[in-house]
Amino acid sequence: MSDQQTNGQALIHARGLVKHYEDGRVVALDGLDLDIAAGEFVAICGPSGCGKSTLLHMISGIDRPDRGQLMVAGRDLATMSGGETDHYRATVIGLVFQLHNLLVNLTALENVQVPMLTTGIRPRERVERARDLLDRVGLLHRENALPPTLSGGERQRVAIARALANDPRILLADEPTGALDSKNGERLFELLVELQRNADMTLVIVTHDQHLADQAQRVVHMLDGRAIPEPDATTR
Amino acid sequence: MLTNAGALTLLGMTRRNLFRQRVRTLLTVMGVSLGVVAIVAFHTLMRGVWESVEIAISTGGADLMVFKSGVAADLFSILDEQKTRDLLEADEHVAETSACLFHILPIAGQPFTLLFGLHADEFVVRDSIPVSGRRIEGPDEIMLGVIAAKLMEKKAGDTLIIAGQTFTVAGVFETEVVFYNGGILMDLERMQQLIDRQGLVTAFLVKLKEGADRDAAVVSIEERDPDVVAVTGAADYNKVDRGLDMGNDMVWLVSIMAILIGSIIVMNTMWMSVFERTREIGLLRAVGWSSYRVTAMVLIEATFVGIMACIVGSILGAGLAELTTVLPVSQQFNSPVYDLPPFLLALAVAVTLSLLGAALPAWRATRISPVEALRYE
């Protein structure tokens, strides 16, 4: 299923996205069009600086395009107020970064609860939910460990559990295996795929790794801030 | 069974943030506590002075004191004893009077000893109860306040040289007025001779008739003789002595200076803290924390600092005030009063200045862009 084939009910619908940095000297996105359906697993590939991470930032609501339209779950992100965007980030989106970005003074269990503080979940439920998520990523036995005592792979799994804290519809992962060795990277990728299938989430992964990208339902190639149209794009 | 154990809270996060940099937090707390020390120490001492003045005016059940008007301080008040007594006894409100003469002399190695003269047969002496020995009965007898007796190491039966003349200690007394406890009581006429003030006194303690209106008595006395003022308590003591007001002003001045310093220290600490956590704050924003929540986190951290500073500063401030009751000179005049208002004031000031100091860093935290913060190393 190519971008052009996706119908108007796409969960993520981007048209003509433009984003410049450094007073226009750097063009991150240059009229990008993209549709991603609900429950789809999409890998975004491309060379460094092609705008992959910028696209993820746009979809996650932590950055805004200079021009163009970005609709997610039927809402135009440009029209959302600050409070609505915060709520969107907390409840619709789960974010996994290349670096784990855990809070070093909180335990694994507490790190997973960080996004839940915004949604009014009761403390007991927060703990139970965080434990369940750590169990799902195979780290329940490390719930009281502080990030510096965890391996790189373990930290990234905690970060995935945190991203799933508020049961998001969309999981965005920006080079999630980039800081891991190939073995750990492979296992982490398998975990993401498994979680996506079980939770029926939409998973969008930015990766340089073609081998990992090939496991996605669809691969979107980007170059110079645009998605490259590929009539024979990988579709599963 | 579901439990709260392991539950993350905003308060818990802020506590962790503070304890992450223990030394810096401790130094900040100490910095802010300087302001609290100043407030607690000076205010408890001033309240002690205030209370002593209140009690001194009601010595022996007196309702008011009469001084010379237009003087800079109470000790500079000079009244003609007979003329003033006649004036007061002619007033319809007045039941009884007791003349007092105050002076400060270096005595027995104590550089500032309050000497006060009273007529032995007047109500102030008559109603006082010595803790040891007896009341004065003759012109060459004196009574020592408990603090003076301790500092001068004298007891009933001992002799003491005052201005080159020898007096016998008849007894030791104790009152609720700390500067009386640090002083020496002697016969008024003998004291007038001793300091060459024959026929002159500093003030009169006045008992009013039962049912007499005190405010009306004040107006009546002051109208009879514009050269005198009548004071009923610490609140109107500034009619004869601006010392209390000046003391209060100084206390506030020092407190404000300490508060400003503390506020700048908090600002520096919180600014550093926010700066160091740019990436973390960006992450919190990225996972859906609102700018209000981030602001709350910074302000709660500052509040914790304020509360800790209040506790530390209150202990140190009370200790400093208590020190004045041990030092030889100051214990003759100071007795801090540890009631709630200075500590509530200290808490309010510590928390307020911490919040003020954190306001700018908190604002900066809200300006952090998640995208830029996540790129920040």
Characterise this structure:
The complex is a heterodimer of chains A (236) and B (377). Helices cover 31% and strands 24% of the residues of chain A. Chain A has 236 residues and is α/β, with parallel strands linked by helices. Chain A has one domain (39-58, 82-227): P-loop containing nucleotide triphosphate hydrolases (Rossmann fold, 3-Layer(aba) Sandwich). In chain A, β1 and β2 form a beta hairpin. In chain A, α4 (123-136) crosses α5 (152-163) and α5 packs parallel to α6. Residues 1-8 of chain A have low confidence and may be disordered. Chain B has helices at residues 10-20, 22-57, 81-89, 123-126, 146-152, 178-181, 188-194, 214-224, 243-276, 278-286, 291-323, 340-367, 370-375, and strands spanning 64-68, 79-80, 94-107, 110-118, 130-133, 141-145, 159-162, 165-173, 184-187, 200-201, 203-208, 228-231. The two termini of chain B are 42 Å apart. Chain B has 377 residues and is α+β, with helices and mostly antiparallel strands. Chain B is elongated. Chain B contains 13 helices and 12 strands. Chain B has 2 domains: 10-51 and 245-375, no CATH class; 64-231, no CATH class. The A-B interface holds A 57, 60, 62-63, 82-83, 86-91, 93, 95, 97, 101, 103, 105-107, 109-110, 113-119, 123-128, 130-131, 143-144, 162, 165-166 and B 2-10, 12-13, 16-17, 19-20, 279-280, 283-291, 293, 369-371, 374.
